[in-house]
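pasting for ref
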Amino acid sequence: MGLAPVDRELTPTGFLQLTGHPLRWALLGELSRSDRTVRELTIQVAQPQNLVSYHLGKLRDARLVSARRSSADRRDAYYSVDLTRVGELLTATGGALHPGLRLTLPPPRARSGAVRARVLFLCTGNSARSQMAEALTRKHSDGLVDALSAGSHPKPLHANAVRVMRDEYAIDLAAQRSKHLSVFATERFDRVISLCDRVREVCPEFPGRPETVHWSMPDPSAGHAADDDEASYPDFRQTADELDIRIRFLLAALISPTTPP
């Protein structure tokens, strides 16, 4: 995954000053693990809401974090961190001090061997987001991550989910079928990742208490007629691109730091 040019508005020293604040660093750390609401962040960092909101505002101004209105409760919003931008700024900061400190974002190092992790992706219909996430995880991990997907109210696979995976990522989803999350109720996973604000609220507990992660992502088919594939295709492509970035970072955490080659 290549690094885009760095936004020169935030200098290396400005980046260090911004992220060097202990609370801002803690907020970035929490958001690197899961999208969260302000209320959840105040609990995680044990700080009052007004202080958390103030520092989130600073991080938003620098475009290190962004917010999306919850599709489950429009009065709430989920915050997420732009790990790609953070990586770009870390690279620029190291290189500004010395060329030997220029950082890179290597792809996960896959090698032959047993499955290292099991991940379950959930959304409402299991017709687009979670199916694409499952497929991208399987492809990028070379089989080291056993990825599965399900939904709280399954419906047929959307034609544009099949199309975008085929045209943009050379992945064939045509044989995939939607499944209810109860199918996996007795199975063990290392992480359960919800991609929909609604399904997060009804997600059951799985055996072994796996780490639960939330990626607040809008339904790419929302607001489009069921058969209006051309109009919704750009939204599906944007969703796939965001999933691709998030999954590469997920795999870096699941695969790269463990067993050496």
